[in-house]
Amino acid sequence: MIGSTHRFTVGDFVCVSFCDADQLRDGYGLFASIPPDTLKQGFEEQGYQADALKFSMNILYIRTPEHSILVDTGLGGTMSKLPESLLLAGIELNRIDTVIITHGHGDHIGGIIGADGTPTFPKARYAIWKNEWEHWLDVAQKADDPNNSARKNLIPIQDKVMLIEKEWEFLPGITAVHAPGHTMGHMGLLIQSKGEKLLHIVDAAHHPVQLAHPDWAPGFDVNPQVSTETRKQLFTRAANEKMVMMAYHFAFPGLGRVEKAGDVFKWEPIGS
User: How far is the first Cα of the chain from the last one, in angstroms, to the nearest whole number?
Assistant: First the structure.
């Protein structure tokens, strides 16, 4: 349900997953390049109904001893309840000091600027992979439509952006993970505290069925071959290191563990 919250911890870090969208999607449309009979069989084998897939937007908040961090901002506008959800959870918008932009799609950047044209998180600085920022800033600068998501949300924050060019711990306990394919500057996160780890893969995968079929790429992956390899690497890492994994569009709260089942991976949800 939109507005739902799920609290959990990673070591000393207090985390909250916010549900900012709760939809049913048609798997045949989501993975349109895969033959329908193959999709039907693959989904049924994993216990899913292909034409009614749970599809959420799970926005992660992290409070560390040093920082108050939001990972992506949802669609924004009337389609989002994120500001209200944060306030109801006791998180003041002007206390968030860092917003991590995992990539430039509208369902991740739409809540940066409010309806009145001012930043939703007035004290925040922003972190994004360098070539992702350069691509979407170019889109923003060429856009004629004032409501274009990149133009509306990225141009006003140009002087507040930290550009990330490599995998490194850019905040204490928060490491950038290059996860290209969905977009070429798509970024995941490794969150670590007191020996506990969370791997947030964001949009590297869109549904748990992709653990068994990592070569199933949705039409909005800009490079399906690269996104397939990224998925395999991330699933392998999560399984081998026995980490909790989070995904932006998996059924709320988007948390689970990746188990190896023979030659394929299996999703074990947490907190659903």
Answer: 11
